[in-house]
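Sequence in, structure out. Go.
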Amino acid sequence: MGIDGQRLNALDRHVALVGFMGAGKTTLAGEVAARLDRRTVDADRLIEGRVQLPIGAFFAKRGETEFRIAEAALVREQLH
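Output:
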């Protein structure tokens, strides 16, 4: 139930795709978004825009831990 007591429909909620690089998340996200008439958000592209670095350079300069922290924060932000 939602905060207002109405039943929630899973299709009215956010969908997040998580997986390894090259697994097809971006391709699948486009297909899912089209079918549900929703927008897609590519976390890597948003992070690159915010830090002004390609993801590979971000990893090299700041490490995977910092990337995962930035990624988790972005996902939390986008799912609210």
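Check: The two ends are 17 Å apart (CA to CA). The mean pLDDT is 87.
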